[in-house]
Amino acid sequence: MPLPQFLMLMAAVILAAAATLWVSLSHGVPIVALALAALIAAGVVHYSRHDNQH
């Protein structure tokens, strides 16, 4: 992947995360709830992958 496309992808991800935080916090969602949701989502993604079977 060329460097300019990679940098635009990184900027898009950062802007999407900032927009998510801004909208969630402006609607009164506690930051602890956002952190817990992110932790649960990361766990689900980790355990749903099939390449980590023993």
What key attributes describe this structure?
flat
Task: Lay out the secondary structure.
Layout: H1 3-26, H2 31-48
Explain the overall architecture.
The chain is an all-alpha fold. It is built from two helices and no strands. The chain is flat, with a radius of gyration of 15 Å. It starts with a helix and ends in a 6-residue tail after the last helix. The mean pLDDT is 92.
Q: Give the averaged pLDDT, no decimals.
A: 92
N-C termini distance: 33 Å
Number-wise, the strands total 0
Contiguous low-pLDDT stretches (5 residues minimum) are none
User: What is Rg?
Assistant: 15 Å
Helix/strand/pairing category = mainly alpha
**Percentage beta strand:** under 5%
Number of helices: 2
Largest sheet: none
**Helical coverage, percent range:** over 70%
Order of helices and strands: HH
Shape: flat
Summarize the structure.
By secondary structure, this protein is mainly alpha-helical.
